[in-house]
Amino acid sequence: MSYDKAVFEKAEREISSRRISAETSAQIRLEEIEQKIPEISEINRELANTSIELSSLILERKGDFEKNFEELKLRNLQGQEMIKNLLKTNGYPEDYLEVKYFCPKCQDKGYINGQRCECFKKLLWKYATEQLNANSQMMLCSFETFNLDYYSKIPDGSGLSDYEKMKNVYNHCKNYAKNFSLKSPSIFMLGLTGLGKTHLSFAIAKEVIEKGYNVAYDSAVNYLRAIEKEHFGRSDNDKDTLQILLNTDLLILDDLGAEYESGFYVSTIYNIINTRLNKGLPTIINSNLTPAELQKRYDDRIVSRLLAMYDYLRFFGNDIRQIKKMNGEM
Asked: Smaller CB count within 10 Å for the chain: N or C?
């Protein structure tokens, strides 16, 4: 996948900052220890001399190379062991002087043998997702601003009120966000317009992002338009929206069914849903369509996955936006 230049540069700066921070912290610890334990300072000087001798020996290869090499190597190991013992004796961890890289695999260089390290790939995904979200026309919400008082407390034929049903939905969403992991199930929210589907979807997004996960969130319409432009070469950027949606930790598609009917859109929606299910990645989709309308709009491959393989949350009540308008709250 190609990345926007700004995304790539931001990830590189983060990797560089991690490396500088780790090495600076190690240098500060070394200066502290050499003041408190002078013997370690002396050993480090000896180790430095040993390293110089090793380099010279390797370059010149004079005399009994194998014997001299093993002797210098042994002196080096003995010196390192002495430092560990001194640290331990003085109440410090044995690895106190080691550089604590964020990623020990690549030592915060971003590459291993010329290939991008996983830590660098994760940063690229993170900043590409953030860039995608920056263009979203949707705003994140919080659970604290979700008001259950807009739902009727009068029981219906089932013996439960809309208030009680929506309280269960609210608690389900809140627990989902609290316990979120990459193994969390996908959620399909279904109900008429103005019942809080977008609010709770984006409240989940807010909390999951705060946990450090990558979350892509926007309306299905906006995503599909972006993917269409990129697919048919009508976009002037290097973004690959589809790849981000297929691989981000959590994807939220708002208002599925509001897009105009198109064979390309249907196949793209199926690709997103099916690929993420196969990868085991959680997705949250909400729609104002009824199950019958879904059946008419999409083929069975999509509908069956949404209704059978997602946790199904049905929303109840009357349009909250209309209620607010009638109460003069808008």
From this structure: C
> Tokens 């190379």 belong to which residue?
65
Neighbours of 226 (CB within 10 A): 21
Print burial letters for 228-243: b (CB count within 10 Å at least 16), e (below 16): bebeeeeeeeebbbbb
Query: Within 10 A of 214 (CB to CB), how many other CB atoms are there?
Result: 21
For 200, the 3-state DSSP assignment is helix
Long-range CB contacts (< 8 A, 24+ apart) of 70-77? Answer: 75/46, 75/50, 76/47, 76/50, 76/51
Which tokens in the block code for residue 205? 């997004």
- Both tokens assigned to 239: 């973004």
Average pLDDT over the chain reads 86
Amino acid letter for position 255: D
Residue 201's nearest CA partner among 253, 162, 278, 241 is 253
Residue 116, burial from CB neighbour count under 10 angstroms (0-12, 13-18, 19+): middle
- CA dist 288 and 290 (Å) reads 7
Residues of the chain short of pLDDT 50, as ranges, are none
Which helix or strand (DSSP H or E) is residue 14 part of?
Answer: helix 5-36
Q: How far is CA 312 from CA 125, 186, 220, 303, 307, in A?
A: 29, 9, 18, 12, 7
- End-to-end Cα spacing for the chain: 44
Collect all residues with Cβ–Cβ distance below 8 Å to 328 and sequence separation of at least 6: none
Residues 6+ away with beta carbon under 8 Å from 286? 188, 189, 190, 197, 198, 201, 253, 254, 255, 256
Give the pLDDT of residue 27. Answer: 92
pLDDT tens per residue, range 183-192: 999 999 999 8
User: Could you give the CA distance from residue 31 to residue 217 in angstroms, rounded to a whole number?
Assistant: 47
pTM to 2 decimal places: 0.73
- Count the Cβ atoms, other than its own, within 10 Å of residue 131: 17
